[in-house]
Recover the amino acids of this structure.
């Protein structure tokens, strides 16, 4: 057993974990933050993407002890304190960027990382950045639209390009 | 996954000491090792994390024209920080996997693993890099020993890699669309004393020099200089993604694109 101490969505947390406890299991099992999903558990699908010190990572492929002292942000940290959707979440909703919603937490977290690095991405840059996030439902077009809308760009103009 | 003890040293010396214990194994970014442990292909008794060691992280330019990358530096940092010194190296790092993989995976882990489809081995062999470990310096030409095998000894860690900056270079990769690894990737680099061409993804023996292309390009650094060459499909990887013949064909196509795009 070891102590895992970190700040998750602004709240300091600490708990005993085994060395082999994955960050995603710590978030979901110990902290009951079940918004982060496990799709593949083999680092392929991106459903488990969270931010660790501002960087997108696959929480199924990182141990909880590796996030010692880190600032962690999950999908639960994207909504307002009153539960109101954040701008990226709202754009996914408005543009029908989700169907079953399983991939959505990872998509939103990857999008947040993209827009921090590149506030006005092109369509191709959005597709390239979301390469590690797999969606079985939407066919991606509405996800790309949602990201562009979240970035404040006029998607109708882009579509005409 | 089986249970294990953890160590998080903050110096190279402490990491080496921790790795001296029976059953201890280094953990870089975990992007290969953690999935292997889940599949019980690896079951270390002690995992020694290398990502809290400041002296193993970062990118700089040495006085003798080498880009020095700390062994535990993630790909995403190389993609940004090497860009001003060696754009081809930065571009290679920026094409590995996806952003989340690049935020964790490290150069030392990639080289130590020597996956036959990995990108960094092509950069190391294609530039004639020097791989610095906790105990010695190994030339890239002596480092790779066939797929998933290297010159590293038990408990030896890659602390730094030095890539000589080329006059002109490029890495061109044909993505295997499901895994995003290289179906075939070619690194071409032109130096004052000749051209180096390293090929990954293609051979069952792992990364290799394409010697004929090196000779041809050293005489004439143009894509047309490769026109007369043919790559033999013997010993090339054949799988559901591509036949050996297809890979052999791609080697030349990727090499020509790399020469044409070298900057
Ligand atoms: C979805 C996905 C896509 C990927 N796509 C690509 C790609 O396109 N191209 C590519 O090249 N790679 C790709 N990778 C692999 C990725 O680059 C990994 O970072 C790399 O293979 C291993 O590096 P790591 O730091 O994660 O090492 P780990 O997984 O931590 O370790 C791998 C091995 O190296 C050893 N090791 C780790 N660090 C050191 C060190 N400093 N010294 C000595 N031994 C060490 C470990 O003991 C272990 O045996 C991909 C991975 C994933 C999950
Ligand atoms: S669950 Fe982590 S990448 Fe699929
Ligand atoms: S909405 Fe169902 S997987 Fe993406």
């Amino acid at each position: 057993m070891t102590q895992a101490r970190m700040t998750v969505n602004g709240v300091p947390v600490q708990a005993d974990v085994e060395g082999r406890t994955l960050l995603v299991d710590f978030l979901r099992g110990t902290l009951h933050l079940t918004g982060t999903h496990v799709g593949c558990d083999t680092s392929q699908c991106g459903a488990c993407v969270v931010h660790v010190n501002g960087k997108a990572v696959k929480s199924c492929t990182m141990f909880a002890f590796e996030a010692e002292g880190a600032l962690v942000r999950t999908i639960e940290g994207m909504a307002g304190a009153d539960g109101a959707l954040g701008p990226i979440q709202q754009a996914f909703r408005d543009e029908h960027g989700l169907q079953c919603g399983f991939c959505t937490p990872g998509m939103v977290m990857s999008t947040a990382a993209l827009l921090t690095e590149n506030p006005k991405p092109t369509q191709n840059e959005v597709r390239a950045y979301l390469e590690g996030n797999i969606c079985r439902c939407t066919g991606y077009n509405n996800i790309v639209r949602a990201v562009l809308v979240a970035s404040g760009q006029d998607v109708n103009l882009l579509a005409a390009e | 996954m089986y249970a294990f003890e953890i160590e998080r040293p903050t110096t190279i010396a402490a990491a080496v000491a921790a790795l001296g214990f029976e059953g201890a194994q280094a953990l870089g970014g975990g992007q290969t090792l953690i999935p292997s442990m889940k599949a019980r292909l690896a079951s270390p008794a002690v995992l020694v994390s290398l990502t809290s060691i400041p002296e193993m992280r970062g990118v700089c330019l040495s006085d003798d024209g080498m880009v020095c990358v700390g062994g535990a530096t993630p790909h995403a940092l190389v993609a940004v920080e090497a860009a001003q010194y060696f754009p081809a190296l930065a571009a290679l790092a920026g094409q590995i996997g996806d952003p989340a993989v690049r935020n964790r995976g490290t150069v030392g882990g990639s080289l130590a693993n020597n996956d036959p489809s990995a990108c960094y081995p092509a950069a190391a062999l294609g530039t004639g890099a020097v791989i610095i470990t906790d105990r010695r310096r190994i030339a890239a030409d002596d480092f790779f020993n066939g797929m998933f095998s290297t010159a590293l000894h038990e408990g030896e860690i890659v602390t730094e890699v030095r890539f000589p900056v080329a006059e002109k270079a490029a890495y061109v990769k044909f993505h295997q669309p499901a895994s995003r690894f290289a179906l075939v990737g070619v690194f071409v680099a032109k130096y004052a004393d000749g051209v180096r061409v390293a090929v990954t993804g293609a051979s069952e023996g792992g990364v290799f020099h394409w010697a004929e292309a090196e000779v041809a390009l050293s005489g004439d650094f143009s894509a047309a200089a490769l026109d007369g060459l043919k790559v033999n499909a013997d010993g090339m990887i054949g799988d559901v993604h591509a036949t050996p013949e297809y890979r052999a064909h791609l080697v030349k196509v990727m090499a020509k694109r790399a020469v044409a795009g070298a900057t």
Observations:
- Chain A has six helices and five strands.
- The pocket of FE2/S2 (inorganic) cluster (ligand 2) is lined by residues A 38-41, 43-48, 58, 60 (CB under 6 Å).
- The interface with chain B takes residues 2, 18-20, 22, 41-44, 46, 49, 55-58, 61-63, 65-66, 68, 110, 113-114, 129, 131-133 of chain A (CB under 8 Å).
